[in-house]
Design goal:
There is one protein chain. By secondary structure, the protein is an alpha+beta fold. The protein contains four helices and seven strands. The chain has one domain: Aminopeptidase. The chain is globular, with a radius of gyration of 15 Å.
Amino acid sequence: MDIYINRLNEQDAQELFAFECNNRRFFEQTVPGRGDDYYSFGSFGIRHKELLKEQEDAISSFYLIKDGSGIIVGRINLLDIDPVNGTAHVGYRIGEAFTQKGFANEALKLLVNLAPELNVTQIHAKTTSDNIASQKVLVKNGFERISIDEEFSVDTGQKLTFYHYRKKL
């Protein structure tokens, strides 16, 4: 499989916005929605700049998952990087047209291999109980489920069950 992860940069805003808009309904089937405001390019641009600032400050590290031809197939991120404790949280999403093709699995492998360069020795993840595909990707990459809890979605008010995972590097 010919994929790579590319660190998010300012020039990615337009293409990433299109990717997010094209996949909104699909993503909202398994993860809490981001709200209508996220899908206005003005708001998205502001959020994009905030993410770049977080990345510059080494709080998080954001990546686009691209296929061999350079098309965005997904995103993968290390969030809340704590270099003192060596921890971070991973998040990822794959576009609808690219699911069940191994992109998430391969991207997570690439990110896990990159994590030590960011002083990360332990990665945490969480997924909704109904996101079976994400659970499979985490387990396949050596993550272990460590807890289960329930949270209310701020956007929908719906109660969601989350599975929490961890991988020590």
